[in-house]
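Q: Structure tokens for this one, please.
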Amino acid sequence: MISLQRFFQKYTGFLRNLKAAYVVNNLLHTDQLRQNRELYRRYGLDKSIYSPLGSRDFGKKHHPDIPWIDQPDIKERLEQSPEFQAFDESLKHKIRRFIEDGFMILEDFFPQTETEALNLEVEDQIKAGKAAYNYTGRKIFNFYEHSQLANERFFRNPELLRLLSFLLGKPVIPFQSLNFTLGSEQRAHSDSIHMTTEPQGYLIATWIALEDCTPENGPLFYYPGSHRLPFITTEDYNSGNTVLTIGEHSNRRYEDHIAQLIAAHNLEPRPFLAKRGDVLIWHANLLHGGSPIARPGATRKSMVCHYYAEGVICYHEMSQRPALLKGPEGV
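A: Here is the predicted structure, written as tokens:
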């Protein structure tokens, strides 16, 4: 089936900003959007499943069903949870810190043999023309579609899925993966502006180090506790969105807005000098980004995976389009 979504991964021109182009793409993916009919009814949204979708459609008051990890009484409920008590003491400590910090680190989660094998598969698939970077020249979207190893051991790792589902309080749906060879050098942002849910907060992500990170190769950085700031939407800054188009400079203006928030709250970044095999799990609203690459040509191989929760509306606030969710087998 023709996919404009894949086209836009490479394309940077005017069509990328036309909402009508995404509507056409939605019409080509009815099977992946059909479930939204029931979800729209559940959350009182009177809208076509093919139409553009953004926070404005939900009004000023979002649904109160936020993830249990974000609820005010979570500390007491956490200790009373049989599933929580079944985790080992180290992981229980990390979960408690996740509530405060918005992230956790699982050290040495993947063995070196697996990370090396995945790096080799990425290289081979790129050389064979079966996988390619998007228009940024840094991101390979959904490499799991080309690799059984990436899919089964990294993207759908049963131990990680169990933990992520516990944190959100709902089963998670593997949505998207990104493989990097170079650091992103991306300014501070929250994933919630790009992958959004109603009710808010039902997204979670993993960042997997496929080689050691140093100050020279553009390590990831994050702002502990920043997940507690209000969720930012295109209604909170001059996005340039209109009825027909996505704002041409929406992303830059959003990142400018985030920089102002960081300064106003005196937030301090923390670099993630990960070791190969480490996994960083972060909250949907945690501010993070990629440091500048200090040594030209230094690689920072990694894999990022995003997961939505079941039973919520999933969409992309920046581009104003419903998310195309795949089935349990990734198809």
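A few notes: The CA atoms of residues 1 and 293 lie 38 Å apart. The first strand starts at residue 103 and ends at 106.
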